[in-house]
Amino acid sequence: MACLLSGHVNSTNNIFWGSTPPEHCLQRPLDSLKCTAWVAISKHGIVGPFWFEDDNERSVTIITERYVQMLGKFWTALGRRRGVVRVLQWFQQDGASPRSSNESLAWLQQRFPDRLISRRCDPQWSPHSTDLKPLDFYIWGYLKYRVYGNNPQNVPDLKAAITAVIRAIPREERGRVVENFACRIQMCLQRRELI
Asked: What's the pTM value of the predicted model, to 2 decimals?
């Protein structure tokens, strides 16, 4: 998820007419400052956020190499969790190119054999079914509502707010999200039988 600080306007869309040239010219960056977070959720808790950024802590584009590096951080963090058995966990992701590249899928299939839900895998998964992904139907909206309510003024504040909101999600609520996900899957399976 890319989180923008916003407040910046694309100046090519704003034209000011006047009889004399302006004394001051206000320039703003073309792209708003942002951070890109990756998070995993299960009934056992939330792992992350992990940030996609360069050595100067600036947000970077997610490419395969960066995604696999982040997966390594996730795997290490998952292994530190008490009560979580990594060999029993399923891993679900969307079908974005860096996530469904040969390198990413090989990394994931090695650690989640027969428990990977992604594009180009068995079981097949619709990459556009956002209502069936807990991060899409719950987490990102929840974060946006809570994080932007405090009006962060810079990227470190934005990252701190995201982290704080994630850490504050109650265990019971995470459990309800995962149960809701299971119910949605059951409804899809039932509907498919009726068709």
From this structure: 0.72
Q: Which residue has the tokens 């951070």?
A: 35
Contact of 89 with 42, CB cutoff 8 Å: yes
- How many beta carbons lie within 10 A of that of residue 143, not counting itself? 21
| CA pair distance 176, 71, nearest whole angstrom | 26
DSSP category for residue 135: I
Number of independent structural domains in the chain: 1
Q: Cα–chain-centroid distance for residue 168?
A: 17
Query: What are the pLDDT digits (tens) for 31-73?
Result: 667 888 888 887 778 888 999 998 888 888 889 999 999 999 9
Task: Name the nearest CA neighbour of 44 among 8, 6, 77, 9.
Answer: 77
Q: Which amino acid is at 109?
A: Q
Which helix (H) or strand (E) is 182 found in, with range? helix 171-194
| Structure tokens that stand for 143 in this block | 């974060």
Domain housing 19:
2-194
Query: What pLDDT score was predicted for residue 83?
Result: 62
CATH number at residue 182: 3.30.420.10
